[in-house]
Amino acid sequence: MSSNPTRLPETTVAGDSEERIKRFLATASHDLQSPLRHIAMYAELLLDDLEETLDGEQLQSLRMIMEKAQTAQRLTKALMSLAAGTPQVTPEEVDLQALAENVWGELTDETAVAEATLESDGLPSIRTDRALLGLVLRHLLTNALTYRGEAPPHVAIAAEREGTDWFIRISDNGSGIDPAYRERIFEPFWKLPKAGAVPGAGLGLTTAREFLAALGGDIGLEHSDASGSRFIIRLPIA
């Protein structure tokens, strides 16, 4: 382990762009609260009314709907508080290995990317906000699956403790990031040029950085070339 603390590459965003992202987060999160609340409420009502008549698989599916809606409610509340400048963070002990596998499983199901693999054995438990860190991982893993190369996507996640911080490195075997764009990837509403339509508003890395700032951490691009990219997340040890 290096005796010198790891330094992350610096990124800057103009004040007007920060205001745009905050307004976007506040509006989107507010508009999502009502439908999410109703989804969770009706799923709970169905569970109460039909629990005795449904089989195990049906019950599991209904519980999953309710749990996902409740998780989304917590995330949108966190986004609203973040946009208001008063982020609400709920620290707890988080099994990083289980969280990474869960996010990866959801994404590979959603994207149906063939033969995508995750290498993440032995990740530690860390004390942080599960929902916010889960969103950060989701943004980074989504990018790895979206900006993939010709080979089947492969992502490796590793974590180590250095002094008073955790450093989490997420590496992929994608197409890499052109040096001309590396200073722009954290800008709000900017997307890396790619042949064909790329979904999303161009806010993934921007919001990931904002979430990590709320957790007392940050993120940077540590390495990128034709063999892939490696992002590094710093989180304080609680």
Automatic annotation (TrEMBL):
It comes from Rhizobium brockwellii. SUPFAM superfamilies: ATPase domain of HSP90 chaperone/DNA topoisomerase II/histidine kinase (SSF55874), Homodimeric domain of signal transducing histidine kinase (SSF47384). Coiled coil: none annotated. Keywords: ATP-binding, Kinase, Nucleotide-binding, Phosphoprotein, Transferase. It comes from the Bacteria. Pfam families: HATPase_c, HisKA. The keyword Nucleotide-binding applies. This is histidine kinase.
